[in-house]
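Protein chain data
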Amino acid sequence: MVIWKNKLYPLVAIISGLFIVVFGLVIAKRMLACSIFLGAIYIYLMLFGCFKECLKVLPLFIIVSGIFFGIFYLATNTLDSGWAMANRLGAVFIAVIPGMATSPVRMTRALSTVKTPRCITLGMLIAMSFIPLLSSEIKRVKEAMKTRGAGNILNPKILYRAFLIPLVMRLVNISDTLALSVETRGFTLSKAPYTIYKKENLAVSDLIFILGLLGLAVGVLFI
């Protein structure tokens, strides 16, 4: 169930992510309180339109936190150290969910609306677009390897010649295309005037989300 159909305001998503990771790391050693906080935030984000992103993060968090929990438990022979480490990882994984739910276009619009320097806007646009682009290119290279019968990717020679080199070459070509595309669309780093066709503005749901987030943080301090 989703309370609000509208996605979070991009800057609210970024600031809330920073707050979650910092607050989670600070109270990580208060095992029960931190776990309750992270669990509540996870559900809270699902209710505010981040349902798919929450499901994507969950399996990776379970695997990584399970590995580190086991390592710290074996090293110290206590549950507390492993639990605290799982809380820290949980804070990091949950903190990236709001950013994952924000599209690069909406983030660019929001930054442009508040007159952010163009170098920062362009950097955020490229950074947020890079991971999905890298993932798609990796899949394409792997499909090309299967088509040509290149062999097992775990073989160092095959990994280098049939996977890494084609991947790097594709990324170089994409970077050149991206540079031309940015220049063609008049995206300049100088202080040139520009207009925003569709502005991103704060909504009531964003204010409610912020108040709820702060309320959860204050609440767990009394546990």
